[in-house]
Specification:
The protein has 453 residues and is of the alpha/beta class. It is 41% helix and 17% strand. It has 15 helices and 18 strands. Bound molecules: nicotinamide-adenine-dinucleotide. The site of nicotinamide-adenine-dinucleotide (NAD) has 28 residues, from helix 7 and helix 8. GO terms for molecular function: aldehyde dehydrogenase (NAD+) activity. This is Aldehyde dehydrogenase.
């Protein structure tokens, strides 16, 4: 294990020199990051295939392009984002200047998860650089091929003294977390998030926590089931269900459940052919541990579609579990795999109560044409994001913040929000030494006369 104390104190020296603060450094590093991605698209897509059997189209859309778009947005807006924001002034401050200055936090740590291993390391890095920080990246050891590529490529393209990669598992992350950082940005599960936050608390280091949870779907009786099925299944089964904002479970009426199950069969054929196992558009479970975990979630449930598994290939078929009860094990934890439990409900109010009885989810999906139903569910619940009549695509719009609430996380990023997440908003007021008479009122001795003025 490396000497992280020395690594971090060396970075602090460079940070204090001011190198990362100028716009030139930020633009140069963002440009270099874009070049890294452009030059190595094929290599990174190969690594994603080896780790997750991701099709290169899925990698292009959901890993490479989102990251490149964010870099281009940052490059186009960085001058504006960095501009101090003037604030309104009251009468007493009319002659003073008052503004918010966006300053880098300092030396930051980004800990990534394995399911979108390119995006989850590079998107936070865009924010770290745009805001002028030094940054240590800790890719997930579970996506080992991508982690190795990140470790190899970062020093080739980026400022080696300001941006570093530490590869490793729990011991390395634990050792890193004993050090003092100015911000820790963690993506992963809510249990480890508690460890991260407790470690950060020692130094009162702020944290951004991008976590998961059971993101619910409500399908209203009037919704066009053919369209619903396609939009729902794409979000559920891309990356073999291993997406933090994947629709986790579905709530609908018993009649809608029947219609949905029939449509699911058609749509799965459309997407993956007769046998999804032979489709190159369908992924695999990341490792043996997660394969066993997801497989176990099927225990006791009624399989309506799919259910086949192949341990050797870490393959789990796109699966629908019908008539699930809230007490079933599949309803106790985030599925994070290709199982879609359906819970039948009387109406949207019952769905609303089920959502509110649980931890606040990262995302929530409503399929409905009924404005009242949409309003009731929107106003009656809380979630990191809410998407009506589709799944997952809200994360692709970088003018929306991406983040959780409660158990699904704290803080947000993407686009300008990433710049904000890695910036300290320093309140600055500048006065002149003149006009001293204005201050006379606030100085002692305090008198009733001064108070009544
Ligand atoms: P993971 O196992 O890759 O862990 C994430 C990181 O935490 C890794 O870098 C790992 O080294 C580190 N880690 C693991 N155990 C640790 C420990 N005991 N102490 C210190 N560090 C430790 O990923 P995961 O947690 O399996 O990821 C899946 C979860 O992440 C799901 O809940 C998913 O919803 C969530 N997720 C959220 C987002 C988001 O943006 N909100 C994105 C992807 C995944």
């Amino acid at each position: 294990m490396g000497n992280f104390g020395k690594m971090i104190s060396d970075m602090r020296v460079v940070f204090r020199s001011g190198r990362t603060k100028g716009v030139e450094w930020r633009v140069a590093q963002l440009t270099a990051l874009l070049k890294l991605l452009d030059d190595n698209t094929d290599n990174l897509c190969d690594a994603l295939y080896k780790d997750l059997r991701k099709h290169k189209m899925e990698s292009a859309i959901m890993e490479m392009n989102v990251t490149k778009n964010d870099i281009v947005l940052a490059l186009n807006n960085i001058h504006n984002w960095m501009k101090p924001a003037q604030v309104d002034r009251d009468l007493i401050n009319k002659t003073n200047s008052a503004y918010v200055r966006y300053e880098p936090m300092g030396v930051t740590l980004v800990v990534g998860a394995w399911n979108y291993p390119v995006q989850l390391i590079f998107l936070p890095l865009v924010g770290a650089i745009a805001a002028g920080n030094c940054c240590i990246l800790k890719p997930s050891e579970m996506a080992a091929n991508v982690a190795t590529m990140v470790e190899e490529l970062i020093p080739k393209y980026m400022d080696q003294e300001c941006i570093k990669v530490v590869n490793g598992g729990i011991p390395e992350t634990t050792a890193l977390l004993t050090e003092r950082f100015d911000l820790v940005f963690y993506t992963g599960n809510s249990s480890v998030a508690r460890i991260v936050m407790a470690a950060a608390a020692k130094y009162l280091t702020p944290v951004v926590l991008e976590l998961g949870g059971k993101s619910p779907v409500y399908i209203d009786t009037g919704a066009d089931i053919e369209v619903v099925a396609r939009r729902l299944l794409w979000g559920k089964y891309c990356n073999a269900g291993q997406t933090c904002i994947a629709p986790d479970y579905v709530m609908c009426s018993p009649e809608t459940q029947e219609k949905l199950i029939e449509k699911v069969k058609d749509v799965l054929k459309e997407f993956f052919g007769e046998n999804p196992k032979t489709s190159d558009s369908y992924g695999r479970i990341i490792n043996e541990r997660h394969f066993q975990r997801v497989k176990k979630l099927m225990e006791g449930a009624t399989v309506a579609v799919g259910g086949e598994v192949d341990e050797g290939e870490k393959y789990i078929a796109p699966t629908v579990l019908r008539d699930c009860k809230l007490t079933d094990i599949v309803m106790q934890e985030e599925v994070f795999g290709p199982l879609m439990p359906i819970v039948t409900v009387r109406d949207h109010n019952e769905a609303l109560n089920i959502i509110n009885d649980r931890e606040k989810p990262l995302a929530m999906y409503i399929f409905s044409n009924d404005k009242d139903v949409i309003r009731d569910l929107k106003e009656g619940t809380s979630s990191g994001s809410l998407l009506v009549n589709d799944t997952v695509v809200q994360a692709g719009l970088c003018t929306l913040p991406f983040g959780g609430v409660g158990n699904s996380g704290m803080g947000a990023y993407h686009g300008k929000f990433s710049f904000d997440a890695f910036s300290h908003k320093r309140a600055v007021m500048e006065k002149s030494l003149g006009m001293e008479a204005v201050n006379a009122l606030r100085y002692p001795p305090y008198t009733d006369k001064k108070l009544s003025w």
